[in-house]
Queue: 4 jobs
Job 1
Amino acid sequence: EFPSGEEIKRICHTIELARTEVNRFRTDLARELLSGIHSDVERIEGTVAWVLYSLALAETFAASDDPAAKGFFEDALGRMNQVPDVPPDLKSHIHEDYGKYLFRLGYRSKARLQFEAAKKVAAEQGRLEDSARMTLRLINIELELDKDPQLTSFKNMKNSALERGETHQAQLAAWHQYWGSIEAKRHAMKFGRDENVASKEYFAALFRSIGK
């Protein structure tokens, strides 16, 4: 028998409680909460809550560096693709969280695929800040894969932005402006690389100029 509306609300509430516990670094409690509703979730197959349950499991295991997280992320993606009415923000959230997990494990190319998928969903919805955040993640990956010395500049930009509370859109604008300024130098150089990096102070000044 399919659960009632009230039962589904209870399931969703428990899932959100578990995700809150993950954010508080109490993963054991999160696992306990999710384990307690496992049989109930199996009865709501094909619903958004069914998808969200897998994501919550993935987040819980990822937070404790349990390798089982990968399987749960794949399960969440599989369920997401089976349910037609999954909200776009949940789709992008699944892709982004899985990408972050893969990135942390060192799987840069696989993480890139997830961030590209998250960006596509965000862009289609006109969510500019989310799209900019994904673009920044992709830039970071490209710089790492290329072993580009400008990765240090990128990290300095991110640190400056964090201190100043800049939006991801402002960060992206600053990076594009900086990157454009060094492209001409790169083309003129024999090896196409500029070993000089920009400091946090440089980006703080750039953020101020963009904000004017």
Job 2
Amino acid sequence: MHESPSESLFVNNRIDASVTFSFKGNTLSPRVTLELDRFLEKEGKLPDLYLLLAQENGIGLYSYEYEMLQAYPIEFANAEGLAADFLDGASFDAEGFITAWKRGKLVRILAEVAERHMQVADLEAQPALRDALLEAYEMGLQAPRDESGA
């Protein structure tokens, strides 16, 4: 059974990314472990993975080795937390993960509001209320803004 998105936020979401390619007769496999929560908390998105693989593995960004690295697909493995739900073989649905991660973070914030104002101890146990709060939040994002500041 999978964790709910809000529960998974309390777990380290990480995944290994690697590329295997040949360069000057050698097989190279640069690898990096991505601390997904750190990137999403700081930047709201994942970094350029080829760039990160090169930087973390001593590959020059203006080298033929870097060009060869970019010519091969990134493979993923060893996903933990919510990220595991978005790993399919060696493919990672980063967009799906980011959407679920952001929704889980929002649900956690809404759970705090529900507890503070409505004494709801477990928002996940009340999916209709959770969905109503999410819908109200999304409607608020789409509502026209009053430019006068009133």
Job 3
Amino acid sequence: MLGIRVSATPQHLLANGSIPDKRSKIEPVYDWKTLVVTMGWKTNHRLRIECEDQYAPPTAGIYEEIDEQAQLWYIAKNTVVGTNSLGDLKKTKENFVTRNDRELLIQKMAAIAARRMSRLRAHVQVKGICQAAECLGRIATTFQDGNSVYLINGPVTQVSWNFGQGGATTINIGYGS
């Protein structure tokens, strides 16, 4: 069970609808019986990402990355987020995340993988300009060329484009700097 304490100065500011304090020139604004509070708090839980090097010995193949600055902000369904012009409560209709720093951890893990892990390397060039920038930092597992599928399992370390003569997109996988 969670309890909170709400206070105001002067205290009768929360007494709207109750007996007002006649000694003060400040009129009560809030009714303590109908007051709604939306809270947020920090926990000691941290976002983490783990990656396994399939070629390493069992005792040395797990890499874990925890960033103390990485955050996840979650808002639960029916959380009060404001009021409309009539004073009616505006609530969230669904659960949703407003901040998720998982991408930061994915990029850090890709950098670790590029330097430390056993890996295959790939240099993939595709005709045309592809929107592949969102792949940067992610682990590419396979590449398909026609009917052939190649196992890669490496981090995407570079995406570049050549805009001349129809264009081309180049993706480097597994190349550490």
Job 4
Amino acid sequence: MKRTTLFLIGALLALPAAGGDSETTVTVGGWGASEGDNPDLAAEYRSTDGGAELGVESTTHGEQGSVELALRLRDDNEQQHALDFDIGRFVRSHTSYLAMVHRLGADSLENLAGATRHGRAVWATDLDPGSAYEIDYRDLRHRTELQPPGLANLTVGLNFRQQEREGTLQTLAISHCSSCHVVSQARPLDERTRDVGLDARWAAGKGTIKASYNHRTLSEGIRQISLLFDNALQPELLTPIFDDRLQWDSAEGPQPIDRRPDTTKNVAKLEASFDDVKGFVLGATGLWSQTENDTVGLESSYEGIFLHAARNFGNGIDLRWRGRGYQLEADDVFVVYNERKSIAGAQAGKTYRQVYGFEPNYLRESAIDRDVFASELDVGWRLPRKLGRLRFLWELESIDR
């Protein structure tokens, strides 16, 4: 409701500034809904609470500019609003807000039940039976464009977007060894993604240049939940002979699962296109991005360039070429293994390292690291008298990982 109030305040402030002719339509009503069984499919994205409904549509057009307002409110998690205005053709603004519910349904786990003649079993436990798994989704977007007087070729844009997801998810985790035991539990979600961006576009003659930058943050209010895994036993003998080969079971206590880190991502982009450079249509795009896992301090980066050119030479001959090159890099991670000792058999009291001389700790080098270059050339010749078309294709790709 707070964002709806902000929309109304913004509209009330903007309407007098526009002056001129106004037209407003207000719709007030009520609605109700009943649930016969499970609303997850029939009302996957709809509220079923019932209550009052409000709709407002208002437009104002004057010499100083125009304002358009549209409100639709049915419930806290079912509403959609938009506010648009322009001032003297120098300022153009669009703001929208969407709220909705997403019912996710629940896995009944009924298929997870079975056993072999040797005692190996698959079974499941639901720690939160009857939980309603659903997410309240809210999306606020804003863009304002500025076109300075005397610089009609230049457009500057300011962007803001905030997405929020709040509710409950169903999380599944599995314990191995003595059996395949799947555990379901409710996982609270409190997530916010915020984008702040700036872009500028220059269009003149037969060419356009655009530069943009965006800063994104993803914040998790609840980063993880925990689970006590089963005691790891050999499935037939039911003895703990695997202890030195595992990192944890019930002996280590509850372990974190479904971990979600806070992240930050910055993206810069430069684009240029020209319609006629000695007969060629040319285009180029350069892109740079950096993503950081703020929870553990790891980073990944992307740098790339894309080029294309095309020309029709006449006499049925045309040429098209596309080229791209990019580099992906991510931080390496040194993994330290939780070494446990065997508590049964001839290896009792020894770790896996001590028994086999194996070094469990290792440096994990990122699998996404790569340098890529690709080129595609397409030359065509349309034969006379509708005899068809000949094409020459040449493709080159180089990947270094």
